[in-house]
Amino acid sequence: MKLVNKETGLRISTEQSLIDMLVLYGRNQYPKEFGGVLVGYYSDDKRTVNIIDSILPIDFKSTKTSFERGVEGLKEPLEEYYKQNPSLVYIGEWHTHPNAAPVPSCTDYYAMREIVDASSVCIDNPVMIIIGLTENSEKLAFYVYMENTFYKYEVI
Fold this sequence. Notes:
Layout: E1 2-4, E2 11-14, H1 16-29, E3 35-42, E4 48-55, E5 60-62, E6 67-69, H2 75-83, E7 89-98, H3 106-117, E8 127-133, E9 138-146, E10 149-155
Parallel strand pairs: 2-4, 7-8
Antiparallel strand pairs: 1-2, 1-10, 3-4, 3-7, 5-6, 8-9, 9-10
C-alpha cells in the first residue's frame, strides 16, 4: 500500500498484511480504543517512510473514547529493531476510534505534539494511523504530523 500527500513531499509505504493485523488487534479490544507504536525506516532520500511493524503496549489505559499507551516493554523491542539491517526506528502511533470516524481528535493532536517535543524521541514528523471501527466495518486514515498540522494521506 502506497500513500501520498502532495503538500508534504513525503510518501508512506506499508503492507496490507500489517494493516490487517492492526485491525485485528483493534477488534480484539473493541468497543474500547486500542493502539500501539509503529516502526519502520526512511528511504535513503528521506522521501518515503516505510512502515514495517507495530509494537503493542504492555501497559495502557483504555475506554470507549480514550487510549493512553504506556512505555513499559517498548525499549527492548525498539533496540532489537534498531539492530536490524536496515535499522528500524520509531515512526509513529496507531490507534482505533470505536464507533467513530478516523479523524484526529484534540487529544491526538496534543499527543503528537508531546512526542515531537520529547527529548527521548528523535522524530519531527510522526505518522498516525487511525482505524475507525464499528461492529461490521473499519475505515482507515493515515496522517503525518508536520509543523503542528495533521496532513491526511491518500492511497495511490
